[in-house]
Amino acid sequence: MDTHDAISDFLTTRREKLTPEQVGLPDFGGRRRVPGLRREEVALVAGMSSEYYKRLERGNAAGVSESVIDGVSRALQLDEAEHAHLHDLIRAANAGARPQQRQRPVRKTQITSGMRQTIDAMSTVPVYVQNGRLDAIATNTLGGAVFSVMLDHARPPANAARFIFLDARAQIFYPDWEGQTRQIVAMLRAEAGRSPYDRQLSDLIGELSTRSDLFRKLWGAHDVREHRTGIKTVHHPAVGDLELTFQSMDLASDRGLQMIVFSAEPGSATHERLQLLANLTETAVEHTTR
């Protein structure tokens, strides 16, 4: 990924989303050549010269300080994920100017034995572990059952983005498939900012861009998002619709990996269906081990 272009594109797309009124500036009318704020308006709200901001939006990140990042984030009304993404892009651009300081990430492909024991012990809830590329690294038994449509028969490692965009079954598995596509791309965009020299990530993005017009369109929007908490609804082929609350956390013992724990409200239809799925899975395991 060219981080200078990424900075330029990200700032431009954020600027185009705002109007002068939204940032507290008067709008004197007149025709604007492009939608959104002008560069001079961003600079004014950020408290810097127009020329300095223009250089930054061209991708020149040399010497950019934390206070400048904070000022631009405030002017463009960036949320926490967007602010972190801009910081990552600027850090990567400055590291790229000093090639000897580049660090290629080493992506883990498995969890430690201790973490394996931990997620297996969480037998009443689905657990799913992924890396920043959205490769499936591990699940417990119930997690594997919930996401069996994606995991079974996939070329290893199974990848959530590849499933969403290239497997027609994803549109049935995810009732809100369009919302899932936007979320997946936003998560990959954030990871690309954190790991611009990850060759496997670049290859994945290249594959999806080539094979999916929708991915290519969404990738060009430069939206970013963190995946920390929320509700995920899936349509499981064996037990029907599941509305799952999820919480995700970065694993201190397995850096670069994220554990997502799903749950359902006790007494709800989803809770009963999860119990049914657990029973069906246990029965299937017993049959295969006899």
Key traits:
290 residues; alpha+beta; five-stranded antiparallel beta sheet; 14 helices; 5 strands; 12% strand
Report on this structure.
It is a single chain. This protein is of the alpha+beta class and 290 residues long. It has 14 helices and 5 strands. Strands 2-1-5-4-3 form a 5-stranded antiparallel sheet. A hairpin with a 6-residue loop joins β4 and β5 (257-263). α4 crosses α5, α9 (160-166) packs across α11 (177-194) and α12 packs across α13. It is elongated, with a radius of gyration of 22 Å.
Please describe the topology of this protein.
Layout: H1 3-15, H2 39-46, H3 50-57, H4 66-75, H5 80-96, H6 113-121, E1 127-131, E2 136-139, H7 141-146, H8 148-151, H9 160-166, H10 170-173, H11 177-194, H12 199-211, H13 213-219, E3 229-236, E4 240-250, E5 257-263, H14 269-289
Antiparallel strand pairs: 1-2, 1-5, 3-4, 4-5
Helix pairs in contact: 1-5, 2-3, 2-4, 4-5, 5-11, 9-11, 12-13
Could you state the order of secondary-structure elements as H and E? HHHHHHEEHHHHHHHEEEH
Q: What does the largest sheet look like?
A: 5 strands, antiparallel
Low-pLDDT segments, ≥5 res: none
Task: Enumerate the strands of the largest sheet in spatial order, edge to edge or round the barrel.
Answer: 2-1-5-4-3
Radius of gyration: 22 Å
Q: Give the DSSP E fraction (strand runs of 2 or more residues).
A: 5-15%
Classify the secondary structure makeup into a structural class: alpha+beta
Q: Globular, elongated, flat, extended or rod-shaped: what is the shape?
A: elongated
Mean pLDDT: 91
